[in-house]
Batch of 3 targets.
Target 1
Amino acid sequence: MKINIGNMAQRSVYIIASLIIISMVVPTASLDFVSSQEVTEILPTEENHGNEIIEELVSQLSGHLVKQHIKELSENGSRPYGSYQNIIARRYIESQLQVLSEGKIDVSILGTHKSVVGRLPGWLDVNAPVLMVGGHLDSVQDAPGANDDGTGVAIVLELARILSKFEWPLDIYFCAWNAEENGLIGSSEVADIFAAQEIEILQYFNVDMLLVEDIEAPPDERILAVYNNGHGVTYHESHYFADLMRMMSNNYGQNLILPLPSTSFGAWTRSDHWSFIVEGYQNTLFAFESGVHRDSAYHQPTDAWDNPMYNYTMTEETALSIGLSIAFTLSRQYDVLTSLEYNGVLQPGESKQYYFAMTTETDFVVNATWNKSEVEFKLVSPNEAEIAGTLKDSSGNSEIILNETLSDWGLYKVLVENTGINELEYTITARYESDVNNDNVPDSQQFWFDDSYWSMDQDADGLVDAIELLLQTSPLLEDSDFDTMPDAYEVQNDLDPLENDAEYDLDQDGLSNLREFELGTNPNSVDSDQDQMDDYWEVQHNLDPLRDDSMEDPDGDFLTNLDEYLLDRDPHLNEDIHIPFLVVGSLIGIVILGLVVKQKRSH
């Protein structure tokens, strides 16, 4: 199964493109004349877009497969850099990236120390940031390396499997660093290569050791998402993605993630994310176990996959939160607000919380439906202050229950509590704006490319390059699918500019799409000029399918073109020129016969 994130929203882009094409036909018009309000009014609602993708990923992710990868790697024995076991592990990772992605991931071996770097290409063919997840493939001598760092590699492989089932706008990198235990050498080499190639990283999720939890910590603090809060690092560069992991873990998983600032974490410089920070990449975070103080297997022969101290729920939850964070980030749509829907059932006295990470000032609107019981809704700020609340009786209708302007960045909480005496069934939908890269342009009003593409049309086909990028057509080709029909024409007429559909017959009128293009007729209508005569019949009989000529009589047989169409006759051939005379003769005969009969009766 392959799900194209671009194509799921393609109809929305087609409509925007059509507006822009139309505006270009009017001499004084330009893109500026199409306001965001006008675009929003005509766009079909696709509010479940992100929800559907996330739900599909949740159903696909397998904690069992994560554990199997850890078992495979650690049963190979310890794999320090330079050992034969290290080579076997590297080859296993190379093979798995290709097999699990069905060949979609391009695998490279980079650096002198041979780190494995897999790239899932995005469909957006411009310079754009990338997302990355990684762990190290080597271990210390005599340690099987199940936790350190089979966990990181296993999560990389499982995310490669499920994320490669989709097509995303941006590249996603899946990395296994070598020689980490020798001083972060492999990742340092690749970070240097990335910097030289000017690869921009939107976020790097580093995973290194997860299986030992702090059993005395609160349940929602069992996995650490350590974010970069070094000097000059903004919320959006790292902290936001740690909050996003907590949001995904809470809303879709078991709520085990704790965002933690790097200044409160003593081992911040001791894993591969640090190599990228040294190269100037601040957009990094580090997923790490909360129970390192009780991890007696660290760098020991007991670091085996079947160590009874290990809790594999931690790896599954980390894979879930990182995978959903990537999917949520990359599934955003142009000109559509973030919209997330949740539903549940609560018994009397029970409550459920939902997190939402805010990156810009926005109106935060929550609609809800519920029945059978009284319910209370609350909105809580990142510093745990209640912002708004409402108590409602049982209702079956959707209504706005929270509508607040939020100006602070951070993780907000919506609480749903059953305050009645009956079971509560509910659905909530939250809508809000975001600005992930903090450039003061709402995410709904831009995409992952420079705004200059909105004023460019390199192939002069009537589609600005920005629209071509969103449609995945070529900004350099007037006809991206080489079917003789220009991209702009196909977009205007609801055809597919990425598929050779020239010989298809969209309206099933007997004229192919290409023939309709050549004639200038509407491929979506059997009667382009609305004169009650099919385009195909008019073309076959040398009439004009672009104007109403139904009342004309080119063959002078006293039958209009419409009459001829209804009789299935040739409007240019007077097949029955004697018919008028026969009709007149018949009428005269009838009159004479009537006179004769009348005369006889009078006698």
Target 2
Amino acid sequence: MLVSCLLAQAQDTHDRVGEAPAPSVSSAQPTAVKSPDATTPAPAPAPDPRQAQLIADSQKLLKLSQELKLEVDKSNKDTLSLAVIKKAEEVEKLAKTLKAEMNKAH
């Protein structure tokens, strides 16, 4: 119903190209009306501890890889600092661990 009202208003505005702009819709009107038969999405079940650990490790891997990229961008093409090499090893180790954990489920 709301969509049809908005479409009608848009069509009406489109038809009056040369006229003064239509007054804006009053804020007193509700923008979304919930019908009693509308279904709301069920809340997502709480993730199990393994799933929560996978999510945390994935976020850590993303953070580490972004930090590694920034450090590599700061270095020149001929040299890498020891910190960059250690961070790359840490990213690689975490990625392998995460991959192994994900494969355990399948």
Target 3
Amino acid sequence: MEKPFTFSLFSRAEIQGNASKTALHATGMRRAFKVDLSQIPNQINCWIVMSDQTKSAQIINPFQSVLKGLPTILVLAVMGIAWMVMHHINSSGGSSEELSETSAELEESDTLILPEGKITAGNFASVPVEPRTVQHVHTVPGRLRYDQSKHVDVKAPMDGILTEVLVTPGDFVETGDLIAVIRSPEIGQARAEILKRQQQREIAMKVLEREEILDSNLKRLSAMLEEGKSVKEIEAASADLALGSYRQEILSAYSNLVLARELTEKIRPLVESGSVPGRTLKERENERQLAETAFLTARDLAKFSVAQAKMKAEADVSEADRQLNLAWQSLETLLGYKEDKETANLSDEEALSRLEVRAPFAGNVESRGFANDERVMRGASLIVLANTETLYVEASIRESDWSATALKQGTIVKVLVPALEDRMFDAKVHYVGREVQAETNSVPLVATIDNQEGLLRPGMYVRVTIPIGTPHEALSIKPESIIQHENQQFVFVDLQDGKFKRCDISTGQSSEEWVEVTEGLSQGQLVVTDGAFLLKSEFLLRGESE
């Protein structure tokens, strides 16, 4: 049976020397008493009356008690004599032993010993206190949004009749899949323009082919003429060559040249013999020169004309190609996609006005605006198509977290989704806005999040954990190790063999995985992670029972 009161007499110096062991707050769980040292004058012995029932301590000063009356003085005198006797018996210092006993009681009050059965059932786990990299983070609210590059309102490119709608909301389509058909006169005109430009190009190509043949045949004829063959031989060799009017012009001039050469050569001996005057030879020479000039002129003029005609034909073909390409571009602009030029059926009159609306990318049909055979106007929303394999996470960075504006593209942030039982996802920073929004005094943070599983939906509320400042090394423990009770943070240190000690701590910055410890723990101590709340329950129950 414990005594309800314990009387001890100490000097102020003795109490002050053991202040760490005696000057403690009384709680419901500890056998400790608060002693105000300011009440004890120097060099004066005092009685400390400690009550185990009220958990309090009273200091009695003998000199102050004199003022309260003689009975008190007599009591103090008796108690003083008793103290002297006790001091004589315990010359080694009984007060120090009492303080040591008090300290031991305090140590025992912080230590919890569990039986083997509870240790096995508790499945406790501990992590050592070590220096680790701590990155301070802050959690802000956010929302999931569509990736705007993959969320498209497919609109009617022009007026027409919506003859077919081939998809319904919820359908998945691949890139290029046919989703609707519109009959439009404007498309018909665009395709008719293509037909016209195709025909013009065909004509230009035929002209070019003819000019190329003329150019080639004329070169062959010129080669035979330079060889000096007879007119009959040349006519026979060029009979199958397409030369047009150039054949007669060149061969006629060449024939006159050959005749003039023959006449000149025949008259030359007669002039030399004196039978014919020399003036006649000069006349024949002049005729030969004129014939040669006429031949060369006809030949060169033919070459020039054919070359010029060929160049013009080539230019006409190039212009026809440009006009045809422009016609195709105009059609593709109206269609919104590139039509296969090889398989396009432009000869069918009904197909001329057919406008096929195709999916610009793979995704899900979110909504549909019209039914079959409805008239639609240019710009009317036909289908909303979205690809949700990746989504945007939108959050706001406020002034208190301003250092987060320095986040680089690609930085990983954590996204917690309450609707999915607090499941955590990784997201990559896409960009941090530059303009401060006047309404909220914040800048937007946008990150991309993978949604291959299809669990996330646009509009979901999320909590985004963003890193603040730079990481640093510090003694740290797991967040789940920290217990809060009566505005005090503490942990349980694993002393092994079923012993656990409560240690009050102070914390600093924290991350998702670690919390910085600034006071209360030393490197290497084992701190309980799994089972900490079970130890708290045992600790509180023990205090209530005492």
